[in-house]
Amino acid sequence: MNQNRDFYAGLVATAFFAIVLFVLIPIYVKVPSFIPGFAPPPDMWPRVVAVIGFVMGILALVLAFPKMRDASRHQLTGFGGSLNRHKVQIARFVGLLVLFAAFVYGAPVIGFVPATVVLLGVLFIMTGNFERKFSMIALSIIFPVLLYLLFTEVTHTPFPEGMLFSDSLSDLVTLT
């Protein structure tokens, strides 16, 4: 991995997990005022994952600085040349921003699990490695389903259902 890619990957990871930790979790994860016994609050695991991702992003940024400093001594490029050389990565980054926005707004409509299956599938496609198509498809389906089963059956934490597949939509249809 080249030095600028390490820096940008760390920057994107830090920014993404900072948004999740400081914006999305406080807004979308409701914490009741009283939690009985030793039960963890509903925002515990999302916060743990977001903090770990945030710390790993900062670590990637810190580790990228020495590489960037060493490479800057040996090579001088202009901003336009750098943009032209990295246009595929820039397009993928813009695609990722659109994908995450679609995930955030689409999850309440189709549900968390189907939205996560689609998100993982598109993320695997964006890696550009198509040699293991079966593994990519299997992981895109199996991982969200296993997470769903773990949280619903073991910790009894329900995942958000989408309006498309919920009972409230069928009740709405029967009323009209």
Q: Can you walk me through this structure?
A:
- It is a single chain.
- The chain is mainly α.
- The chain has helices at 3-28, 44-74, 79-85, 87-110, 112-127, 133-154, 167-175.
- Helix 1 (3-28) runs antiparallel to helix 2 (44-74), helix 4 runs antiparallel to helix 5 (112-127) and helix 5 (112-127) packs antiparallel against helix 6 (133-154).
- The radius of gyration is 20 Å and the shape is globular.
Write the layout of secondary structure elements.
Elements lengths: L2 H26 L15 H31 L4 H7 L1 H24 L1 H16 L5 H22 L12 H9 L1
Helix pairs in contact: 1-2, 4-5, 5-6
What would a concise description of this structure say?
The protein has 176 residues and is mainly α. It is 77% helix and 0% strand. Helix 1 runs antiparallel to helix 2.
Any low-confidence stretches, pLDDT <50, length ≥5? 169-176
Average pLDDT rating: 78
Percent range for helical residues? over 70%
Structural class: mainly alpha
CA-CA gap between termini: 58 Å
Write the H/E string, N to C: HHHHHHH
Write down the overall geometry. globular
Provide a count of the helices. 7
Give the total of beta strands: 0
**How much of the sequence is in beta strands?**
under 5%
How many whole angstroms does the radius of gyration measure? 20 Å
- Major sheet details: none
